[in-house]
Design a protein that fits this description.
Layout (H helix, E strand, L loop, with lengths): L7 E10 L4 E11 L2 E12 L1 H14 L6 E6 L2 H16 L13 H11 L3 E6 L7 H20 L5
Parallel strand pairs: 1-4, 4-5
Antiparallel strand pairs: 1-2, 2-3
Helix pairs in contact: 1-3
Length: 156
Amino acid sequence: MPDQDKGIVEIFTDGACKGNPGPGGWGVLLRFNGKEKELLGGEPATTNNRMELTAVIRSLEALKRRCRVRVHTDSQYVQKGISEWIDGWKRRNWRTSGNQPVKNVDLWKRLDELAGGHDIEWVWVRGHAGHDENERADQLANRGARSVAEAGPSGC
């Protein structure tokens, strides 16, 4: 690991959905000082964008103190939303430039709250392009989606 990366938590996130909406999952690979931790989960009825956001939220919730973080995501929705669009949404009381309500506002508000507690660099990576850590996050997200899809409807 290059010297300039010491002390930075590397986070790789992905979301997956079997149908959109449908059963979905999220996956996270956290790396810090040579140690790794994997996180995953799923929801029975969700969208891909909600799972992409949830992956980042769960990764930041896993951090126990303020950190320097580099979040890698293959979701332009997440990367542009947090880096470019969110300030305008907040100025317009969580409305888009077209005066429509921001979709997934509950998750955007939670992500905004969590991101404020860290020094974060947001990095977009091309999905399904052989990026090892992104592929691992994708596998975790798909495992999360499968776990809720296989469980079937709750209450049965």
